[in-house]
Backbone:
């Protein structure tokens, strides 16, 4: 709340405060909860102070609050997803220039539901290794030229970084075609690379990911957020919801 107030007051005069309650049923951790809370505070403060913000301004101020007041080395992904997303669309976002496209769900796509599997462990990014994870603006050609000279850990980080770009682009095209199986396969691949190349994911999340991969009716999924505890998310066959829930819960516990 202090961060939201600080960031907003740097741009607009605030004359009215507020008293309120935040309540919800979603688990904390891995669901962009910190960005969601800051955005909620900003929206409320704007309402009582008569401030109108464009989506880009809201994203920028929320980013400022979390990075420069709370102290988490975030980008604008979470804030952008929460402000720009639209029901039954895939948000195809480039955080480098803030361009985006809302890709509608193909009418020929198989039905699906979004499942959230909570590991039972909450987390805080401010004191975690999340702040150490930085990808630099280096071309793929330069990486290919020098990758054999890189220390193994750096090479693995780069491998994840560049292959993840390709997965995102391929995933957007799969969504356009309505190819849910291919989109799911790519999300499973993303999870594998996050674990083995980027070396993120708490043990509990990795176990959930492994269980999801072997569960019938789950098209694809990965852990959500930076991988320091929290949740895994998946696209599932709606007709198998109860069976999936029971199997994943039983194996995980």
Residues:
């Amino acid at each position: 709340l202090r961060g939201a107030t600080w960031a907003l007051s740097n741009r607009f005069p605030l004359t009215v405060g507020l008293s309120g309650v935040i309540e919800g049923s979603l688990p904390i951790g891995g669901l962009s909860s910190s960005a969601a809370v800051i955005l909620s505070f900003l929206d409320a403060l704007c309402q009582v102070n008569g401030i109108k913000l464009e989506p880009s301004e809201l994203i920028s101020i929320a980013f400022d609050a979390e990075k420069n007041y709370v102290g988490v080395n975030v980008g604008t992904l979470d804030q952008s997803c929460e402000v720009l997303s639209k029901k039954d669309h895939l948000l195809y976002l480039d955080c480098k220039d803030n361009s985006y496209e809302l890709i509608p769900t193909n009418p020929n796509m198989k039905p699906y539901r979004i499942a959230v599997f909570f590991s039972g462990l909450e987390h805080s990014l401010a004191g975690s290794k999340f702040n150490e994870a930085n990808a630099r603006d280096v071309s793929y050609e330069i990486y290919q030229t020098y990758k054999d000279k890189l220390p193994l850990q750096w090479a693995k980080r780069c491998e994840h970084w560049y292959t993840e770009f390709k997965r995102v682009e391929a995933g957007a095209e799969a969504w356009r075609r309505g190819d849910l199986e291919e989109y799911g396969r790519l999300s499973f691949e993303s999870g594998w690379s996050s674990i083995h190349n980027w070396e993120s994911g708490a043990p509990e999340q990795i176990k959930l990911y492994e269980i999801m991969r072997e569960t019938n009716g789950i098209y694809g999924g990965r852990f959500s957020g930076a991988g320091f505890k929290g949740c895994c998310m998946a696209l599932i066959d709606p007709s198998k919801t109860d069976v999936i829930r029971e199997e994943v819960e039983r194996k995980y516990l």
Summary: The mean pLDDT is 90. The radius of gyration is 19 Å. The CA atoms of residues 46 and 136 lie 35 Å apart. The first strand starts at residue 89 and ends at 94.
